[in-house]
Design brief:
Distance between the termini: 70 Å
Radius of gyration: 21 Å
Strand order of the largest sheet: 1-2
Low-confidence stretches: 19-29, 51-70
Largest sheet: 2 strands, antiparallel
Structural class: mainly alpha
Strand content: under 5%
Order of helices and strands: HHHHEEHH
Mean pLDDT: 74
């Protein structure tokens, strides 16, 4: 007669995972991790933008008066889907290209530069936009923050360009200014 496997507390339960099984599970989760990180960054940026908007409306702004006035005074616009689509594709391209670069494959700096330029151009044309993207509501601010984060490790010079396109209150002083 065999006894069922027990957990650390001595109560019968499922057998502990072997190292091979554990490695197999983490290998399947790996590629989606960056996408989840981007989604979490978007959610965080939206939360920050909401806090800033509430702070600006209450008059308790401690940041740049010019930035606060411009964002509070300008109503959010919804750009046409045809204008959002290239930005959406640029985000996915940045993710895919940077993942390939991190894995040691040849990076495509020209492609990344085009994608960064697409995002920056959109942000200048629609500085206070709200738009649907990947089942979320994105904003121009969240778009720039996610793009900067996506480029930070694989193309720091491009991340610095995106950083400079952000409102001063959201610029990262640790991003190299090359």
């Amino acid at each position: 007669m065999t006894t069922p496997p027990t957990g650390q507390d001595g109560i019968p339960g499922p057998a502990p995972a072997t190292a091979a099984e554990d490695t197999g599970r983490s290998a399947r989760r790996g590629p989606g991790l960056l996408l989840w990180a981007v989604a979490a960054t978007v959610a965080g940026a939206l939360a920050v933008a909401g806090v800033v908007a509430v702070r600006d409306r209450s008059g308790g702004s401690s940041g740049s008066a010019a930035t606060a006035t411009a964002s509070a005074a300008a109503p959010a616009v919804t750009p046409p889907a045809a204008r959002v689509r290239p930005v959406h594709e640029a985000l996915h391209d940045i993710d895919a290209t940077c993942r390939a670069t991190v894995k040691g494959e040849s990076g495509k700096q020209a492609s990344l530069a085009r994608d960064a330029d697409t995002v920056i151009t959109f942000s200048r044309r629609y500085p206070n936009a709200r738009f649907p993207i990947d089942d979320e509501t994105g904003t121009t601010l969240s778009l720039l923050l996610v793009t900067r984060q996506g480029l930070r490790d694989c193309a720091p010079a491009l991340a610095a360009r995106v950083n400079r396109a952000l409102p001063p209150d959201f610029r990262d002083p640790t991003t190299p200014s090359s």
